[in-house]
Design a protein that fits this description.
The chain is α/β, with parallel strands linked by helices. Helices cover about 40% and strands about 20% of the residues. The protein has helices at about 10-20, 40-55, 75-85, 85-95, 120-135, 140-145, 185-195, 195-210; strands spanning about 1-5, 25, 55-65, 100-110, 150-160, 175, 180. Strand 6 (about 175) and strand 7 form a beta hairpin. This is Ham1 protein / nucleoside-triphosphatase.
């Protein structure tokens, strides 16, 4: 059974649309490292979650990347949401950026099952292995056992708008795609085009072949 590592039940419901009943939620508070990109954060979380669960896991890291702010809040989206709130992020964008205030939602899914497979992207996996090898005996066995992780990315372009809609979660009310905010879409509509949905579709195709 595949374990989706998250405290957000909405993410699991999205995953079920792509993975049928072959996924359950795992509420595990893995260490979220500081990084300028989503991939290393998700990869580290997947390895740590696998060591905890001892069974196949998938971890996602996602964020809102605003073009005019060099991608901010990006990997720090959760922190910005918790400390500033999404309306403050909108007001900042509205005061500092001209229309159309382009942005993108990005998501990286990281899969780890303790087995061997071609990891991706290679630079992340190679860098992690190099660091582990360099530490050698100074670290315990779990830390030096750097397992392969497969990454799947999805993104959707849009723009920042005044909050609209009652659905979704996170930044959905201020992110508009093709004239509609994510918060104005039904769960089914959003899942069909969202960054997480697109990453899940790629993962589901690969995972189906791996488990055949």
């Amino acid at each position: 059974m595949l374990r989706y590592v998250t405290t957000n039940e909405g993410k699991v419901r999205e995953a079920l649309d792509y993975l049928d009943d072959d996924v359950t939620q795992l509420d595990f508070d893995y260490t979220e490292i500081q990084a300028s990109e989503l991939g290393p954060i998700a990869a580290h979380g997947a390895r740590e979650a696998y060591h905890h669960a001892g069974e196949p896991v998938v971890v996602d890291d996602a964020g809102l990347f605003i073009d005019g702010f060099d991608g901010f809040p990006g990997p720090y989206s959760s922190y910005a949401e918790d400390t500033l709130g999404i309306e403050a992020v909108y007001r900042l964008a509205a005061s500092e950026l001209d229309e159309p205030r382009r942005a993108a939602f990005r998501c990286v899914l990281a899969y780890c099952d303790g087995g061997q497979f071609e990891a991706s992207p290679d630079p992340i996996d190679r860098d992690d292995r190099t660091v582990a090898a360099a530490r050698g005996a100074e670290q315990d066995e779990e830390e030096t056992d750097v397992l392969p992780v497969k990454l799947f990315e999805g993104f959707v372009n849009g723009r920042i708008v005044p909050p609209r809609g009652e659905g979704g979660f996170g930044y959905d009310p201020i992110f508009e795609h093709d004239g509609t905010t994510f918060a104005e879409m039904s769960a089914h509509e959003k899942n069909g085009i969202s960054h997480r949905g697109r990453a899940l579709a790629k993962f589901a195709a690969w995972y189906g072949e791996r488990t055949e």
